[in-house]
Design brief:
There is one protein chain. The protein is an all-beta fold. Helix content is about 0%, strand content about 50%. It contains no helices and eleven strands. Strands 2, 4, 5, 6, 9, 10 and 11 form a seven-stranded mixed β-sheet that branches. A four-stranded antiparallel β-sheet has the order 1-3-8-7, with no helix packed on it.
Length: about 130
């Protein structure tokens, strides 16, 4: 069982930056692939970025590539999302998600149904 708690959201002007954190409980966090998703008002939840448990593979949605960076610190049971050059269209509730990895250490996952655990979300609002 893994519990996830996001933090770091807030209100920022367009072009600004925020860093989201996702703290996970559990002693086997290092074996979980992680992902960030977001959901804007009136829209479906969408994939943002994913990272393998070994930290050696990641995958970004085209909409955030070059602006967002995912990282993880397995010693701190935390995954981060650094968001730069924010745009109004980045406004959403951001969720982190976890999935127990098996097999290849570089596996990451980009589909909602592939994740077993979800945080409660943190609001990011970008004003134009």
């Amino acid at each position: 069982q893994v519990q996830l708690v996001e933090s770091g959201g807030g209100l920022v002007q367009a072009g600004g930056s925020l860093r989201l954190s996702c703290a996970a409980s559990g002693r086997t966090f290092s074996k979980y692939a992680m992902g960030w998703f977001r959901q804007a008002p009136g829209k479906e939840r969408e994939f943002v970025v994913a990272i393998s448990w070994s930290n050696n593979s990641s995958y970004y949605a085209d909409s955030v590539k070059g602006r967002f960076t995912i990282s993880r610190d397995n010693a701190k049971n935390t995954v981060y999302l650094q968001m730069n050059s924010l745009k109004s269209e980045d406004t959403a509730v951001y969720y982190c998600a976890a999935r127990k990895s098996t097999g290849y250490s570089g596996s990451y996952y980009i589909q909602i149904y592939e994740y077993d655990y979800w945080g409660q979300g943190t609001q990011v609002t970008v004003s134009s």
